[in-house]
Amino acid sequence: MKEALEGVKALAFDVFGTVVDYRTTIITEGERLAEDKGIEIDWAAFADAWRGRYRPAMDRVMRGELPWTNLDALHRTTLDELLAEFGVRELSEGEKNHLNGVWHRLRPWGDSVPGLLRLKTRFVLATLSNGNVRLLVDMAKNAGLPWDLVFSAELARAYKPDPRAYRMLQELLMLGPDEIMMVAAHQSDLRAAQELGFRTAFVMRPLEHGPQAVPNLRADPSLDVVATDFVDLARQLRV
Amino acid sequence: MKEALEGVKALAFDVFGTVVDYRTTIITEGERLAEDKGIEIDWAAFADAWRGRYRPAMDRVMRGELPWTNLDALHRTTLDELLAEFGVRELSEGEKNHLNGVWHRLRPWGDSVPGLLRLKTRFVLATLSNGNVRLLVDMAKNAGLPWDLVFSAELARAYKPDPRAYRMLQELLMLGPDEIMMVAAHQSDLRAAQELGFRTAFVMRPLEHGPQAVPNLRADPSLDVVATDFVDLARQLRV
Fold first, then answer.
1. Is the ipTM of this complex over 0.90?
2. CB A19 within 8 Å of CB A135
3. For B140, nearest residue in chain A (alpha carbons)
4. Which residues form a coiled coil (chains A, B) (predicted)?
5. pTM confidence score
6. Chain A closest-CA separation from residue B212 CA (Å)
7. Conformation bin of residue B14: beta by default, left when phi > 0, alpha when psi is -120 to 50
């Protein structure tokens, strides 16, 4: 382990894609729903399209075209658009709300819970996610994610990669930026953290976009740690 | 259980005095420190005096006489005052900082962890404390308090009983006020929650102020639940 990492006291985790597998969960729940309702729909395409509208929706908020809107509400707007585009007219309001809640029920990658439990013995584990607080609390309770602190962009009213989200977490933890390591499967998250002086760990999630996707797993050499999963991260951090 | 309580989904806990026994922890750590340093001091009186300056310090912030100041910093100011008043001149800056950190290391009442673990199977468990986030995170990690959400007055920049702290928690949880039950050993906390429509549970902590104190344990009849401890609370809430 590099000497510079010995001062790390807290790990800040990106969540969607890094800790949980949104794509498989949406496909699984979607297929069950479609069977119940007797409809046919390509849930892999639906999951990818839903996730694809995530960044543009947050960008509308950050450009001031929308007032502050939490992720549950952004997801509901994009869900309604996609249901129309995919020609799904069979869902009641209750069923749409339940489907929108799938983000609260996302399943963790297999190494997430064992890796986090091990990391928790040495570090403060915080989420640093664009998911709203309620979503993250429900997800943690459902999946057994042992966070010490559920922190959300909602508290800063600024979506990542806006620096205000990272800085607010740093202030609450009363740590220097080099005492916090951002953990993410996305290099954009890590770059924003790095610019503020955080340490960085890139965790590869080659299946985030499905078995057919060709993800960019070429790690920027300036990143502090590159790990294959959370258990490997714990090993590299000598936990 | 009253029918009105069946809709409760989250419990919001006062922490100092309700979950943890600050008085005994301060006395125990203080006595150890005094022995190391060869000084004599009445730590029971010191603990009571330190806690006694808590409300006036927060009131100065809420009246605008001080800019927003977190509880760690308020505790440090009042600690310095008390060390001078008790005639303690033997402590280094590092020792004073360590002593101030005792609030991060407070020990839970014996029923707190087992009661919370049982309540966690049915309810979202959140702190609603004037302690700052870092203090609450350290305390939870140290004492094994299984919070789903660490929420602090620091996030609202308003100390309880200011309604902004309670309302912000309610908004983050996306619940109606009658879906949240405030749990506290102090009726002032419960009154403020009740005025906003929260449900209320009064948990008696007869030893909070020490074995000689005569606490007011006469529960206001408008409170929803009166419990002897957290295990009794779980039983009354049918967990």
1. yes
2. no
3. A148
4. none
5. 0.96
6. 36
7. beta
